[in-house]
Inverse folding.
């Protein structure tokens, strides 16, 4: 496994593969790898010949009150996990390499990024889309694998690829859950055992929406009420949203017709968690 810390090193590590016509699969992450990330690596392996994993905790996608400073980091462990999973190239640039000075150019998007995570985290999607653009330019992947776990991010990246003609195919991998149902997340290390029990309400809520939708319930108001009822069973949760949205535009729907997502966000103590399930024809 090659480890590149600079942009030229990353390009050099892939030059021969690119010349040889090998398909490059790319998994961008913020590190502190878990089974969710590693499932994306497995998927990239299926879809391509060379697997590149990036590890970069992107400060521009954190707000001033977010957890950038305390976000968990363990590069040594990440490299061991990546190697054991068959990653070919890890791109782990230091902050100064990716952002040598504050960028004057930003990728920004309307509609898809405006509500839900966009409201809760102003500037978050500008930070995500700008860094993902830079990573796409550095790695130039044929295929990029993202997790359904971050459904609004997937919608934004899908739209950015289409709007800006990136020559990359987006693959979305399903959410990996721990045995108790909680969606795997680097932030789960923040949770005390008690908070973790409370946090299970998120997966129960979206699971309930998925069950009801499978039984034919398509009314967004009733699906949202069912999710809120489930979330209310964990009284210490502070619910930010529980919504049924169009999977592509991430805007509220009245009725599940095309592809939709039932999405929730809540705070458990100091930790902010999100979860979702796809509904509708793709769900
Ligand atoms: P992060 O390191 O949190 O920025 O996540 C990097 C990538 O892993 C994103 O595409 C996430 O959607 C994906 N991811 C995070 N958690 C999970 C999970 N539980 N299952 C599947 N993919 C995930």
């Amino acid at each position: 496994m090659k480890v590149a810390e600079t942009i030229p090193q990353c390009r050099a590590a892939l030059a021969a593969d690119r010349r040889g016509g090998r398909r490059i699969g790319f998994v961008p992450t913020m590190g502190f790898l878990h089974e969710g990330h590693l499932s994306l690596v497995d998927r990239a392996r299926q879809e391509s010949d060379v697997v590149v994993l990036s590890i970069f905790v992107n400060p521009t996608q954190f707000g001033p009150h977010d957890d950038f400073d305390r976000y968990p980091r363990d590069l040594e462990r990440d490299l061991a996990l990546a190697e054991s999973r068959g990653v070919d190239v890890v791109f782990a640039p230091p902050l100064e390499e990716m952002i040598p000075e504050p960028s004057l150019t930003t990728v920004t998007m309307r509609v898809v990024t405006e509500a839900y995570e966009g409201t809760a985290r102003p500037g978050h999607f500008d930070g995500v889309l700008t860094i993902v653009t830079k990573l796409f330019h550095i790695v130039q992947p044929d295929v990029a694998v993202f997790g359904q776990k971050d459904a609004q991010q997937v919608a934004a990246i899908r739209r950015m690829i289409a709007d800006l003609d990136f020559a990359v195919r987006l693959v979305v991998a399903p959410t990996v859950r721990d045995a108790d149902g909680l969606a795997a997340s680097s932030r789960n290390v923040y949770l005390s055992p008690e908070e973790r029990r409370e946090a299970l309400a998120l997966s129960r809520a979206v699971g309930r929406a998925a069950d009801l939708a499978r039984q034919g319930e398509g009314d967004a108001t009733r699906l949202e009420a069912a999710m809120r009822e489930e979330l209310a069973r964990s009284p210490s949760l502070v619910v930010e949203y529980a919504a049924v949205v169009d999977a592509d535009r991430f805007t509220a729907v009245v009725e599940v017709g095309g592809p939709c997502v039932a999405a929730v966000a809540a705070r458990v103590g100091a930790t902010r968690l999100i979860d979702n399930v796809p509904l509708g024809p793709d769900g």
